[in-house]
Amino acid sequence: MRAPSIFSFGFAYYLLLALFLYLPIVLLIIFSFNDSTLLVFPFKGFTLKWYQSLSNARELLDAVRNSILVGLFSSFVAVIFGTMAALAIARFNFPGRSFFLAISSLPLVIPYVVLGVAMLLLFAQVGVELSLFTVAAAHTVINIPYVMLIVAARLAGFEQNLEEAAMDLGATYWGMLMRVTLPISAPALIAAFLSSFTTSFDEFALAFFLTGTDNTLPVYLYSQLRFPNRLPLVVTLAAIIMLVSVILIVFSEWLRRVGTKDVPRTS
């Protein structure tokens, strides 16, 4: 059987897809070194002044801090509730299990704009003032399904006999979770946390509707697009964030792959 040619349709399709996905990222990084406020070729010159100017952009750094705080809080809470939901789905067969799974997965298919408006109305009705807390609450809601699915896949990757053996040897249910289930699921938990943090850090629609006086980074960047002289700083910070996001995604994917192999099994 003849091997497929490197110039086959599949290779051309993959090449075009890679260019479509990654060329904008490459251009973003390139323009962060351009010594001009105009994002056009040819370059006026190579400079690092935009990276140096970031340290003096107080409002920009505050927005970065806000996004980090929201991302850490929402990811931590989402991992807790998402892991609980994954345990319920993977280890228990209870009435309404399919309905529970469907309801838990709804934030994956509901547009964030619609969800943002709905949560804005909810917070207004119950008298909750818009703040970073309301943004974190919304991000927790959208991150729980991701955590649930990632952890559930990990729980399905090792035999339940390990947990049963631990309880037969005298461990309580909670002791078994702390000593067997959660340690084995640790790579998936870390991957779920990193994926949730990346989603929260980059999310715009919910934050736009639910933020108060303290903006998150995506909302702040959107507001700065009206000022041409601020655009190079926005591009520079976006380049840094893009690189960090790619690193986190690659690392979380590596953890997920590690978590799905070399799983101890009972005979």
Describe this structure in words.
The protein has one domain: MetI-like (MetI-like fold). Helix content is 71%, strand content 0%. It is built from 12 helices and no strands. It starts with 8 loop residues before the first helix and ends in an 8-residue tail after the last helix.
Give the topology.
Layout: H1 9-31, H2 49-53, H3 58-91, H4 97-104, H5 112-126, H6 132-155, H7 161-168, H8 173-184, H9 186-202, H10 205-210, H11 217-224, H12 231-259
Provide a quick synopsis of the model.
The protein has helices at 9-31, 49-53, 58-91, 97-104, 112-126, 132-155, 161-168, 173-184, 186-202, 205-210, 217-224, 231-259.
Q: Write the CATH homologous superfamily.
A: MetI-like
Beta content comes to under 5%
Number of domains: 1
Number-wise, the strands total 0
| Average residue pLDDT | 79
| Structural class by SSE content | mainly alpha
* Tally of helical segments: 12
Q: Helix-strand pattern, N to C?
A: HHHHHHHHHHHH
Determine the N-to-C terminus distance. Answer: 40 Å
- CATH topology heading: MetI-like fold
Taking all Cα atoms into account, the compactness measure Rg is 23 Å
- CATH A-level architecture: Orthogonal Bundle
Shape assignment: globular
Low-confidence stretches: none
Main sheet characteristics = none
Classify the helix fraction into a percent range: over 70%
